[in-house]
Design a protein that fits this description.
The complex is a heterodimer of chains A (278) and B (206). Chain A has 278 residues and is mainly alpha-helical. Chain A contains 11 helices and 7 strands. The longest helix of chain B is centred in the N-terminal third of the chain and has 31 residues. The chains are: A mainly alpha (278), B mainly alpha (206).
Chain lengths: 278, 206
């Protein structure tokens, strides 16, 4: 019970703190509130609740699972079969076996289907936990968080050499500016100018390296408002859901191209994983 | 053909190759969009269709030529519909609610809104208005004191209504949603919001 009630109390505290800071600073940078929350409640990053999800991800990664009853320990994330250390910092990237550019999560899906024999449609029926019912993170969320966090302390450096990597980055940028839906929005509507906010929420400018690096270097993250660990596919889905569009397809070439562009803009970001954000 | 100077020819070739590239890019964008979104229950593929205006604004990333700008303004002006009673100033109290309420309209497998949920303009996401509301975004213009600054003449009322109904009829490729044209807000709700902004009695002008 304590485990269930604690996050909501912390959230209330974080919101309260955010509002009082907001009034004091009169709409100044709100980034401080989550930093303060982190200091007040946990003190150090080793106590990030997302690390519990990462631990579960590690168990799931090494466990024999799926119709073929094998672990994911032979999955190739781009640095060779079974190498997870530093792999996420060099994704999205081109994979010869699938002949396409893949981000961490689409690659994970490939390994779960090819190596473990899972059905992709089954796995993608539900890839995100529902924060409204205090649901724990889905297995695929835990797995992705585990692999990603093995790039903690490294610098984001996805390759941009293969023609398909170049194409993914270029297409990602074009899609970033693509306006659609009943609100006429594109990613660029909110994320292409400095110092912008929705209500009091700061919006990163993906044409400013500092902003892009801050975001891409801190995901996967513990989202305080969800009480869950979240990966980049969720972030991409969430933005499109808020844009009132249909569900962004998990691991689709569109989601991967967007991530290729965003990661390219954030090149050299120091990865501090898992992060902690609103 | 032989009257055309070689310079002109090469310029023509350059334009042709650029437009082939652009068409190729657009076909690719469409392919990514088509496979990029889930199909089935609670999805709405119609929302992925771009009209001519959004197509131009996306391809040019909002940096339209003079001609493109003129075409957008003309086309979007023609879409504007007014309330049946012809009155563009509604009730500011109702307008305050329509200004503040969220858009609703979320769809999909995870957290769809009820289809009959009341729609608002979610205007505070981007605009400051009532000085007492501190949690206002800054993607749009600060609207505090709107009526006090602009007055409440017919021109101001009409301009404000048109801007909310179809932002692109005023500024081509404006970031602002075309709230009336896209069916987010009704003409009556827009008239109420106009009143919230313009009426001297509204908290916006206090």
């Amino acid at each position: 019970m304590a485990k269930l009630t604690q996050p909501s109390w912390l959230l209330a505290c974080a919101i309260g703190f955010g509002i009082s800071t907001a009034i004091a600073q009169d709409n100044a940078d709100q980034g401080a509130s989550v930093d303060d929350y982190r200091e007040m409640t946990y003190g150090d990053r080793d106590a990030n609740p997302a690390l519990l999800v990462v631990d579960r991800g590690e168990q799931l990664f090494k466990e024999k699972r799926g119709p073929k009853n094998v672990s994911l320990e032979t999955c190739d994330f781009g640095l060779g079969a079974g190498v997870v250390k530093g792999a996420y910092a060099q994704m999205p990237r081109y994979f010869k076996d699938t002949d396409r550019v893949q981000d961490l999560e689409s690659r994970l899906l490939t390994c779960m289907t090819e190596i473990q024999g899972f059905d992709a449609a089954d796995v993608t029926t539900k890839t995100f936990a529902d924060e409204r019912i205090n649901e724990p993170n889905m297995d695929i969320e835990a797995l992705a968080a585990y692999v990603a966090v093995q790039s903690d302390g490294m610098k984001l450096n996805p390759p941009a050499d293969h023609p398909k990597e170049k194409e993914a980055i270029a297409m990602g940028e074009q899609l970033f500016w693509h306006r659609h839906g009943p609100l006429d929005f594109s990613c660029a509507t909110c994320h292409s100018a400095d110092g912008k906010r929705i209500r009091l929420q700061n919006l990163g400018n993906f044409y400013t390296a500092k902003d892009a690096q801050k975001t891409m270097g801190s995901w996967p993250t513990y989202r305080v408002s969800h009480g869950l660990a979240r990966n980049m596919q969720h972030r991409m889905w969430d933005c499109h859901w808020q844009m009132r569009l249909p569900d962004l397809e998990y691991g689709s070439p569109m989601s991967t191209a967007l991530l290729a562009f965003l990661s390219h803009q954030a090149k050299d970001a120091p990865m501090v994983l898992p992060g902690m954000t609103r | 053909m032989n009257y055309i100077k070689p310079v002109t020819l090469s310029a023509l070739a350059l334009i042709a190759s650029f437009s082939v590239y652009a068409d190729d890019m657009q076909a690719k964008v469409q392919a990514y969009i088509k496979s990029g979104f889930h199909k089935g229950k609670n999805q709405d593929p119609k929302r992925l269709e771009q009209d001519e205006t959004l197509k131009v604004c996306s391809e040019t990333r909002g940096k339209v030529s003079g001609e493109q700008a003129k075409a957008i303004v003309e086309r979007e002006k023609a879409t504007i519909k007014y309330p049946a009673n012809g009155i563009l100033m509604g009730n500011w109290q109702k307008g305050k609610k329509a200004f503040t309420d969220g858009f609703a309209m979320r769809i999909g497998r995870y957290e769809p809104d009820a289809p009959d949920k009341v729609r608002g303009g979610n205007c505070y996401a981007c605009h400051a208005a009532d000085p007492k509301e501190l949690a206002a975004g800054n993607l749009g213009t600060n609207l505090r004191g709107y009526g006090k600054i602009r007055g409440n003449t017919w021109d101001t009322v009409k301009y404000t209504y048109d801007k909310i109904y179809n932002a692109q009829s005023v500024i081509p490729c404006s970031n602002m949603p075309r709230l009336g044209h896209n069916g987010v807000l009704s003409p009556e709700q827009i008239a109420d919001i106009v009143s919230f902004l313009v009426d001297p009695a509204s908290p916006v002008n206090k």
